[in-house]
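Task card 7
Instruction: Convert sequence to C-alpha cells.
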Amino acid sequence: MVNVRPSIAAGAITLRQRKKEATARVIVDAAYELFAAAGYDVVTVEQIADSASISPRTVYRYFPTKAAIVFELQASWMSVFLEAASLRISGEQVMTTLRRIATAVAVHVQANPAQALVAYRITEQSAELQAMSLGWEREWREAVAAVAGSWERSRALPMAGAVMGVISSTLEMWLQHGGRDDLVEMIDRGFDALETGWRDEAPGA
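Output:
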C-alpha cells in the first residue's frame, strides 16, 4: 500500500523540501505524459527518467515502483482530504464536514482533469494497478470513518462505506464523461441524495 506523505504547513516548507517536491512533480508529469501516449505496461522507469532529464536512480529515490508514480495522484488527493479534515469547525455535523472535505478534494481533482483521466484509463487496463486500487479504497474508507471521531466503529465504517459509494461512483461518472462536467456540483448532488434519501420512484420515472 502506498504511504501518504504528511502535509507540511506552507510556512514550514524548507528550500530543500520545495526542491524535492518540484523533482517529484517533474517525475510524475513526465510519467503521465508517457502513460497517456503509450499506456502503463510498456513505459519503463528508464523512459520516465529520460523524459524527466534525471537518472533512473533518482526516480527510484522518490518512487520505489512505477505504480507508486501512478498513485502519487491519489496521494495528493488524500493530502487535500487530510488537510481539509484537520480544519474542524466547532459544532459542525459529521456529514456537513464530509461534504466540505469532499468538495475540497473535488476542486483539487477538477483542477487537473487530464492526469485523473489518464489514471482512470490505465488502471482499467492494468491488473497491477487495479490490485493497488483496492488498498487505496481501504485507506479512503478509514480516512472517512476517522472524521466521525468518537463514533463507535460499528457505526462509523458503514457510514464511511456509504459516503465512499457516493464519492467513488460520482468520480467514476465524471471520468466516464471525460471530466467535462462540474465535479463539485455532482458531489453536492450526491451528498444531497445521501442525506435525504432517494424517492421511491417507478423505473424510468
